[in-house]
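#lab-general

N.A. 3:47 PM
ok so I finally got the sequence cleaned up, no stray characters, all 697 residues accounted for. can someone with queue access submit it? mine expired

B.Y. 3:52 PM
send it over

N.A. 3:53 PM
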Amino acid sequence: MNARAESPYDACLAEALAQSREWVPRWLGKLNEALQQREAAAPSLQEKQVFIQARTVLASHREIVAERFLSALGEMLNGARPAGGSGSGSPSPVARKLQTLSFDDLELMDDQQVQETVDHARVQQVVKMAADDDLVALSARLSRAQGLDVVRVDANPLRPEEILSALMRALSTLHVDESVRSRWLNTGAVPLGQALQQFYQHLSGLLDAWGVQPAGYAVIQAPESRGVLAAAGSARRGDSVPAASLLGSDALLTLDHLHQLLVGNLDQSGTGVSDQGASGSGNAMVRTLAAEVVTLLLRRIAEDTRLLRPVREMIQDLKPALIQLARSDPRFFADRQNPARRLLDAITARSLAFTSEQDAGFAPFAELLRDTVQTLQAPGPHLPERFPEVLRRFNQAQAPAKEPARGLAVQTLVRVEQRNLLAERVAGELQARNDFARAPGVVRRFLTGPWAQVVAQARLQAAAGDPDLPGDAAALRFMDILPDLLWSSQLAQASRNRPRLIKVIPPLLRTLREGLDSIDYPRPQSEAFFQALMGLHEAAYKTQHSELVSASDSPPSCQMDLPAEPWMQATEARNSGFMDDMDIDTQPAFQDTEPMASDWQALRAEPARDAAQLLPVGTWVDLREEHNTVRCQLTWASPHGTLFLFSGSGGRSLSLTRRGLERLQGLGRLRVVADHGVVEEALDEVARLALQNSGRS
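B.Y. 4:20 PM
back already:
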């Protein structure tokens, strides 16, 4: 077959597009039949008219729907063919919106967007249920066709959510009523699932005939950085906690209800709840919905194993107080500035610092939390007024004991980054000199590394000094030696004028040592450079005239000068807890070295990324040192994202360069525990549970 001329993966996508030209028109025919059946079974004339309208509009738009659906599928499949056939691996915007729906997103939606999200979730669930078994088989073979030994479901560009997203994009281009589109989607969900089931069976059989064996499924533990138990909020296979067990058999919370609660569109008149929401009145509904959100929120926190069990149990003891607060302030959990929400955030954030009940500082923290819970459990009126005072006392008791040490670390790292950024500019000035390129590589690397740091340090000191004094004298003197240094290190040039060479060497070496001492540069590294430099001087002095021709004709060194990494002095490293024991280069090297790994060189060639994209401030991580793992929090990132400061529960500070941070992540020695607040993640799960519940209603 001709398909063998290309990879099985590409051939499968080509066949998928060809097959779509058959099943898409067939599905539209099934949709028309389903609309006729609904029309015939409609219990009222009004509902019958709805289906008549949907069927009539479909009849007039059937060809254009097929054309645009196929066009959207073609764009989707063409985008899934990168070089090497590795698959797209990234969900479409619509599918991604369902997977990552957050509490904050829901509050910003309007009613139409909420309804579209619910419709999409409902249809997606129906379609996946019909085609799930055949989807599993196809994903396994497509993963193998892309060279993967383990199944990656997101590497299958033909999964139902992607096809449904293509359909949604096609329908969004039609000038038809939203109610008609919604009727098409809901009525056509079952026929679409059946069509995809046959579609997947055909493609799996084709891959099997081509000799593509299925990849294996690996059982892995879900990462804890974005919700520890994602099972309750997802529709993935193997969910360990069904959503019904969290919501109850008569679950009330749907996405629409949650949205109405957040935007304040429900009537809250009245002071009491007489029927617990049974009447459907606005007052009863608001309070019942708020209580349901609080219950789900606390259940999510109770399942979050990143928090120690005693902490989770004490947080559950806050439920009566929070339920009572919800009666007077039903949306307190959505307001980040509300004292009760801030208290929950503070408790859970501090709790992440402890990995064991034996950790230093846990006992007093647990006692403080116990007192906090007891204060809010005490009977009496005016509960909402208690939260601000409880929050104030909690934060005051949790103030870092070693804040001065952290302040010194931050000041040190700010100074280090300023000097390193200025050193980069100095290095650029040096490289722009006409005599720089012909210098030996050892000299070039010295100038763009340690000596750029020397000049930068001198310029910073001059800027901070008395403006009436010649504070830049040192910086000027350190730059003035460049002509002599570059000239004397070039064999062909220096050997022609031995008297000048003898004259410039003593003051040159003296100034070089003075500069390196000004930044406390380590003696072993500096002596290595001086030995290399004196070797060049000795060779120039001993070179005979007959050797000058070959020396002068030799081309300059073509060895690439790699950019220097952020560097700090020994005292700066101590003040900031710099991690120089993790195989991280801490000195700007000028000796001959092997090139850095290609992935790091490629990274340096890319535009600088925002530090927040690497790790946002506030992230908790487990950092593995030689024999133990440290739980710490990223408390500060330098303005230019080159240095990062972590703080441990015991007040210890650790700092890393950007390169060191990425290297530790790549080695698996730095694991993200939480990059968002525990309460924020729990509320996001509540929103996704509400969406899932809406899909079943």
